[in-house]
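re: the backbone from monday

yeah here it is again, tokenized this time
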């Protein structure tokens, strides 16, 4: 009996000792929770010839998860009046790129009661969800000093009526606003579908636009996925959510609605998202509109629209949220050397970026004229500006036209 107990004691002790040794040998060894989880990286010497380029000193916020993308119904509302050929061309372009009619129903909204234009819309049959013909809303009251610009008052009333109709009578949560004289890119609809979740997520964003006011050839970076925040409301193909319309509809202006949208009372320090390469362009029909071709020859007809396919579903757009974008944007600008306009004639080919400073509107206009970009301000904001900064390409160099105001305090 004693010998049996002795054997049991020895066996138990050996088993216990083996377990202790195993635990010691496994100390510090990490077993992945997931068999597909990669192990620790193997650090190898970096060949100086292929050293990664450091583009920013701002650390990436690792805790921020990408914005969840989801499909939502975004009707496309095409505004027209009396340009039947323009309307036909525009709707045909929309139908060519539309993958899912349920996600992007087309609604045509017509003022002017032009029979030829109405017939063009009707010929598309059930490819168009609805045709809105503006009813007789009575005479338009135009201030005497703007009688020669009464068309702008008709457009404002047209927008007000049809946006209300689509968002409340048809009960959509948002809409894409376009016009019959716009050309569109192949990824026009995918672009808005991808960016709508950002509009829902980030309350510092109040619109998504397809337009770059300075999107002229040789003034843009050839990156079809590059997007920016801007303090300037661009319009010309844009996404309006019902939440924003609820906020502004009660004070909608009787005329010049786009400039009214650019007032600080509407913008409220919020931004729009715009592309580096426009998703819309102005067709020659645009010369016949209310603006009578203003800026068309010098700027608008030179705007380049994107023609490259883009897989928007695979692109993380969370860098556009204000808390991530602002520090990276400021670091990118601050990393650039400050030059003057006179230096533009002899920039080094390897100069990736540069700043040109301005302290007032007159100085900005002079710089913009030299760079051949748009030089005007609306409500103190230059076109495409973000935090006062306007950027464009000059040869192989990205130029940031930056305010001398530091730190940035507003317009």
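seq for it, each position gets an aa:
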């Amino acid at each position: 009996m004693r010998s049996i107990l002795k054997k049991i004691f020895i066996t138990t002790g050996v088993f216990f000792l083996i377990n202790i040794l195993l635990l010691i040998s496994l100390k510090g060894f990490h077993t992945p929770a997931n068999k597909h989880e990669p192990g620790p990286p193997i650090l190898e010497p970096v060949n100086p010839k292929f050293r990664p380029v450091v583009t920013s000193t701002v650390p990436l916020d690792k805790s921020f998860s990408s914005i969840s993308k989801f499909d939502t119904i975004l009707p496309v509302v095409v505004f027209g009046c009396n340009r039947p050929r323009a309307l036909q061309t525009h709707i045909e372009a929309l139908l060519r790129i539309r993958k899912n009619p349920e996600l992007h129903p087309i609604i045509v909204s017509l003022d002017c009661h032009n029979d030829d234009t109405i017939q063009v819309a009707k010929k598309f049959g059930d490819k168009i969800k609805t045709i809105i013909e503006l009813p007789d809303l009575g005479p338009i009251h135009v201030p005497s000093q703007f009688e020669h610009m009464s068309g702008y008052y008709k457009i404002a009333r047209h927008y007000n009526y049809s946006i209300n109709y689509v968002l409340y009578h048809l009960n959509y949560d948002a809409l894409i606003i376009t016009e019959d004289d716009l050309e569109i890119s192949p990824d026009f609809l995918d672009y808005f579908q991808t960016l709508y979740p950002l509009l829902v997520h980030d309350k510092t964003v109040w619109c998504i636009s397809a337009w770059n006011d300075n999107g002229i050839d040789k003034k843009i970076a050839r990156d079809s996925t590059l997007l920016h925040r801007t303090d300037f409301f661009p319009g010309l193909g844009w996404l309006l959510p019902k939440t924003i319309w609820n906020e502004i509809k009660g004070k909608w202006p009787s005329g010049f609605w786009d400039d009214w949208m650019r007032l600080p009372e509407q913008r409220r320090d919020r931004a729009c998202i715009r592309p580096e390469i426009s998703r819309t362009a102005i067709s020659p029909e645009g010369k016949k509109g209310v603006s009578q071709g203003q800026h068309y020859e010098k700027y608008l007809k030179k705007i380049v629209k994107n023609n490259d396919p883009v897989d928007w579903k695979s692109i993380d757009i969370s860098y556009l949220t204000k808390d991530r974008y602002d520090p990276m944007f400021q670091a990118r600008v601050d990393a650039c050397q400050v030059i003057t306009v006179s230096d533009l004639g002899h920039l080094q080919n390897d100069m990736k970026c540069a700043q040109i400073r301005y302290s007032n509107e007159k100085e900005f206009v002079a710089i913009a004229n030299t760079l051949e970009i748009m030089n005007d301000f609306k409500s103190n904001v230059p076109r495409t500006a973000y935090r006062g900064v306007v950027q464009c390409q000059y040869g192989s160099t990205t130029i940031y036209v930056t305010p001398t105001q530091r730190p940035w305090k507003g317009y």
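The radius of gyration is 29 Å. The chain is about 30% helix and 15% strand.
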